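A.,

Following up on our hallway conversation. Structure tokens first:
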């Protein structure tokens, strides 16, 4: 297996770029671009994100030099070590006179924020989600590929879609922290943080190209989010150079917000710290985007602890693999069962992006495709290959504080086609069509109950974590886990014998039969015959050869022989009297039943408390009405007495 080493680059001089921060306290990142217009004759619309002005300042005046021929990189190229790198003192500048100080976001936050993605494929899934969310804007494809950076021939990761694209205002929100325009219940993204965490998890730098048409105006924008630039120039705020063009006419016309020097400073910074050495090379990236769409290039990809790229592009020309995960199964001599297990999709999703992306979305797309390294991705739903299928309906209990009723959840459960040879098990739990927990094992570790059983469900009533690789540990999640355990146990008890496993209680029944036969062997044969004849007058007399009491008077009862060697191993707990054995699985089932009963009682308790609260409120209202009526009657009585006294006096 080839290992691609990062290119060897010489030390580059650090050119400090002095770019003022934004005074917009809603922005999480400082956008070096639009502020005020240079003249009143400029009729271009103004984006909402407004940074500081850099008027009448040339690139040379603010410390920018011509782009260096090689791509600049960090000294620490390992993701998990990059946040601890020391790059020297931070350039802290005082605000201009008359302007207020504001909170800043240090560049190290970009790295610490990206550590929410423990898994690189989780970061790639975030970017795929953004493209899928563009389907309602007309997107028909998303392309994921590897490209080579011409500056140093290093690999970069490309994401491109033909969605609605981003105008100057939208791309600034995309580059900022916490903004999200996705308010639909059908979209996957919601926190406004996925682009930053995912791109910074995959590489140190990202450049974005986007075209859009809004209100009969066509624009194209370029934005650079460079952790390398921010750390090497010792910035104390997240500065994002951006440039915009108006392409409504016959050529691309720069959109100037403050001054031409500002625009040139942003362009020069982008050229110096991006893979593109000239403005023409930069604009060439729009040629294959079309009238609308977005292209994302992530470069300076992270390395693993061995100094090799974390993502492997050489093992398979049609796939992207996680090098460390793929190497775990790289031994030459493996048992046949281990090889079969590693070929199953439940294992391949750990290191193969093609395998993981194939089950990433529950429902298959109709007019949308994912192109991975030039080859369309074939979506796969493991429920289509399960045998002895069963559908179980579950209606979540949202509690008394729920504003609306939740639709019932259908869980499809069955045995994998390789069962019982493979012990793969678990539930694929989706949220809004997106896989959150693949092959979630709800049974206890070491238990053979549930081997080969896989379920699929979409749980939109619980919220995923920020990295979308797990769910928040809420009470709804705990109840769902208990329900899935119950579903699995019920299915196993009624279907495990269909694939050759011993049904529950089979061992106990055999033990009782053996004990009964042993006790009857100790009795005289005549007594056995007599007792049986007396107890059951319809029973025929036993035969001596191959009959009911052959083999020395023992019963020849039929014994079910399992069709496979994978017996259901149940640990047993014996009571103090030593007469009754209870299996661990039976205890687990009882615990699940008790838990469900506790949940029901807890729900009733909450409902009763709410009823008591409502009754107390009604009682208080009645008391107030009673007090008002009493006061009204007292007033009437006083008025009547006053009237009588007045009449007597008159």
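Then the amino acids I'd put at each of the 650 positions:
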């Amino acid at each position: 297996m080839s290992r691609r080493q990062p290119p060897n680059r010489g030390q580059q001089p650090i050119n400090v770029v002095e770019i003022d921060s934004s005074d917009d306290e809603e922005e999480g990142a400082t956008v070096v671009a639009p502020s005020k217009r240079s003249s009143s004759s400029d009729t271009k619309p103004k984006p909402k994100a407004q940074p500081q002005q850099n008027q009448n300042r040339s690139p040379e005046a603010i410390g920018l030099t011509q782009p260096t021929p090689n791509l600049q990189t960090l000294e620490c190229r390992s993701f998990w070590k990059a946040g601890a790198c020391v790059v020297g003192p931070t350039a802290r500048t005082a605000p201009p006179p008359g302007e207020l100080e504001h909170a800043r976001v240090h560049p190290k936050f970009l790295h610490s924020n990206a550590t929410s993605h423990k898994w690189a494929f989780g970061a790639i899934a975030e970017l795929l989600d953004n493209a899928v969310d563009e389907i309602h804007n007309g997107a028909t494809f998303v392309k994921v590929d590897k490209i080579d950076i011409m500056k140093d021939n290093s690999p970069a990761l490309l994401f491109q879609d033909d969605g609605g694209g981003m105008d100057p205002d939208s791309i600034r929100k995309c580059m900022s922290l916490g903004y999200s325009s996705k308010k639909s219940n059908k979209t996957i993204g919601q926190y406004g943080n996925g682009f930053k965490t995912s791109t910074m998890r995959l590489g140190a730098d990202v450049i974005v190209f986007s075209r859009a048409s809004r209100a009969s105006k066509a624009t194209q924008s370029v934005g650079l989010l460079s952790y390398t630039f921010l750390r090497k120039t010792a910035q104390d705020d997240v500065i994002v150079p951006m440039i915009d063009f108006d392409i409504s006419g016959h050529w691309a016309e720069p959109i100037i917000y403050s001054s031409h020097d500002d625009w040139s400073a942003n362009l020069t910074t982008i050229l110096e710290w991006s893979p593109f050495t000239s403005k023409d090379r930069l604009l060439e990236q729009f040629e294959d985007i079309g009238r609308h769409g977005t292209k994302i290039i992530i470069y300076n990809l992270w390395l693993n602890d061995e100094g090799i790229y974390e993502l492997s592009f050489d093992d398979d020309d049609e796939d992207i693999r996680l090098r460390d995960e793929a190497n775990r199964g790289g031994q030459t001599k493996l048992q046949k069962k281990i090889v079969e297990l590693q070929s199953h999709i439940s294992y391949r999703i750990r290191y193969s992006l093609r395998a993981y992306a194939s089950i990433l979305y529950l429902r298959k797309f109709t007019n949308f495709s994912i192109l991975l390294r030039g080859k369309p991705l074939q979506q796969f739903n493991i429920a289509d290959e399960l045998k002895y299928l069963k559908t179980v309906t579950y209606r979540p209990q949202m509690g008394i504080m729920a504003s609306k009723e939740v639709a019932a959840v259908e869980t499809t459960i069955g045995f994998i086609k390789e069962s019982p040879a493979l012990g793969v098990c678990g539930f694929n739990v989706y949220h809004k069509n997106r896989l959150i927990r693949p092959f979630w094992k709800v049974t206890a570790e070491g238990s053979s109950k549930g081997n080969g059983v896989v379920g699929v469900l979409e749980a939109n009533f619980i919220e995923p974590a920020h990295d979308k690789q797990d769910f928040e540990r809420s009470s709804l999640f705990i109840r769902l886990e208990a329900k899935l355990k119950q579903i699995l146990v019920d299915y196993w008890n009624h279907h495990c014998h269909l694939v050759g496993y011993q049904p529950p209680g089979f061992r106990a029944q055999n033990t009782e039969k053996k004990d009964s036969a042993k006790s009857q062997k100790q009795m005289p044969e005549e007594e056995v015959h007599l007792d049986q004849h007396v107890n059951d007058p319809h029973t025929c007399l036993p035969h001596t050869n191959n009959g009911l009491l052959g083999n020395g008077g023992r019963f020849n009862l039929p014994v079910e022989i399992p069709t496979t060697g994978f017996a259901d191993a149940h640990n047993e707990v014996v009571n103090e009297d030593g007469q009754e054995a209870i299996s661990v699985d039976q205890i687990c089932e009882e615990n699940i039943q008790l838990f469900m009963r506790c949940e029901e009682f807890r729900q009733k308790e909450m409902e009763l408390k709410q009823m008591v609260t409502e009754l107390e409120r009604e009682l208080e209202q009645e008391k107030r009405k009673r007090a008002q009526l009493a006061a009204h009657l007292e007033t009437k009585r006083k008025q009547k007495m006053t009237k009588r006294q007045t009449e007597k006096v008159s």
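The first strand starts at residue 30 and ends at 32. Curious whether your intuition agrees with the design.

B.
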